[in-house]
Amino acid sequence: MAKTHDYGLGEYTFPRGWFMVAEAAQLHERPLSLRYFGRDLVLFRGRESGKPVLLDAYCPHMGTHLGTNTTSYVVRDGVHIEGDAIRCPYHGWRFRADGRCDDIPRLRGPIPKAACVRSWKVAESLGIVWVWYDEEGLKPQWPAPELAEWSDPAWVHWKVDHLGTLPVHGQEIVDNIVDMAHFGPIHGLDRVEFFENEFDGHLAIQRMVGPHRTLVDGGDKLHTDTTYHGPGYLLSHMRGRHPSIILIANTPVDDGVSCAWHALLVKSAHAEARAADVAVAREFQEASRLAFAQDFEVWAHKAPALKILQVNCDGPFHLERIWYRQFFNPRARAGEFQHRVNGLHRIRGPALPQAAAGA
Ligand code: FES
Ligand SMILES: [Fe+2]
Fold first, then answer.
1. Which ligand number lies closest to the CA of residue 86?
2. C-alpha span between 31 and 46 (Å, rounded)
3. pLDDT-derived band of residue 171, with 50, 70 and 90 as boundaries?
4. pLDDT above 90 coverage of the chain, percent
5. Minimum mean pLDDT range among 249-263, 283-297, 330-344
6. Given 133, 165, 193, which residue is the final one in a domain?
7. Which tens digit of pLDDT belongs to each residue from 54-69?
8. Burial class (CB in 10 A: 0-12, 13-18, 19+), 132
9. Do 175 and 276 belong together in one domain?
10. Which residues does a 6 A CB cutoff place in the pocket of ligand 1?
11. d(CA 19, ligand 1 centre) in Å
12. How far is the CA of 141 from the centre of ligand 1 (A)?
């Protein structure tokens, strides 16, 4: 297992960006105990605001895990979550959404300043809870993910595939955005007719056209327009058998360990998707998941590519790895990395026809 330092990425162990931490549907009455970014966390839905709250898991009083408890009377009496706050099961200290303790049962005098846990900036969109991770603790550099298609009733909402945890650094996953040469051997896309990458600040983009064995019919071609929005997730607009949008998200669990998800938003043939359209969408998502699982199997078993023996029929790994480094270094230095890679890098094919560019 290789770590951030082994890849020479920068001074921070975990990169800056929006990262998936849970599916919104996982948030029920009980808090969720999570582990990401090398720390234990507790996620719950505030009863007052209805918004998700993400806090560091351990109580500053005596280190109790705020979320993992089933037998205390705090939990059994249903006072574990109160309003937008969570009560520690051990001695009942209560922590607000901003992490400050606002109640210590039977305390005489003021609550100590140190009675707080770290609160994380979260957003809920596309059926997912996201965290803005930033070692500098600054405001998000770009908005949490949104898609206009999500509120269009013609599109069938995805059901997120949980792919599990891998002993693989996010670098190996994000390399995929430039990896032209794997499309034939892994995905059966023998003739990539067009392939280009573009780097634009925090975005890494791939545009590709070619036949595909599973995601298009007969002689049709697959068009994908894929963007990593920072290091944590990509959205790929795909014109295949159905217009659709792939989500692939990866979140560091520990240094060198990643958790990954896949999902597919599918456009139905009707202005308002019907039950039969949902079945078609689920089937197409499964085909897309299986295509992604082809990459996943390789990642699960490979040795770390600390250096890539890059050849001239590869995509521009060397540029993508510079792009990725901006997130492991202070935000003030991001421009240094962007400046070295920003722009269009066409690898194969003529200039993209307009129709494909808007796919
Ligand atoms: S350990 Fe949390 S209140 Fe005592
Ligand atoms: Fe792939």
1. 1
2. 10
3. very high
4. 87
5. 283-297
6. 133
7. 999 999 999 999 999 9
8. buried
9. yes
10. 59, 61-62, 64, 88, 90-91, 93
11. 29
12. 35
In a domain, residue 10? The reply is no
Q: Residue 153 has what DSSP assignment?
A: T
Ligand 1, atom 1, residue with closest C-alpha: 62
User: Does 356 score more than 50 pLDDT?
Assistant: no
Nearest protein CA to atom 4 of ligand 1, as residue:
91
pLDDT band at 190 (very low <50, low <70, confident <90, very high): confident
What global pTM score does this model have?
Answer: 0.95
Q: Which amino acid is at 118?
A: R
Judge if 48 and 75 occupy the same domain: yes
Model pLDDT, residue 349: 73
Site to substitute for ligand 1 among 59, 68, 72, 102, most atoms within 8 A of C-beta? 59
| Domain assignment of residue 295, given as a range | 148-357
114 with 224, same domain: the answer is: no
What dihedral do alpha carbons 49, 51, 56, 60 form, nearest 10°?
A: 10
Residue type, 65: H
Question: Are 223 and 341 members of one domain?
Answer: yes
Of ligand 1's listed atoms, the one at least distance from the Cα of 104 is 3
The ligand minimizing its distance to the Cα of 64 is 1
For ligand 1, mutation pick of 65, 91, 94 (most atoms within 8 Å of CB):
91
Ligand nearest the Cα of residue 61 is 1
**Separation of first and last alpha carbons in the chain:** 37
- For position 97, which CATH number holds? 2.102.10.10
User: What's the rounded mean pLDDT across residues 26-46?
Assistant: 96
Token code pair at residue 66: 């705020």
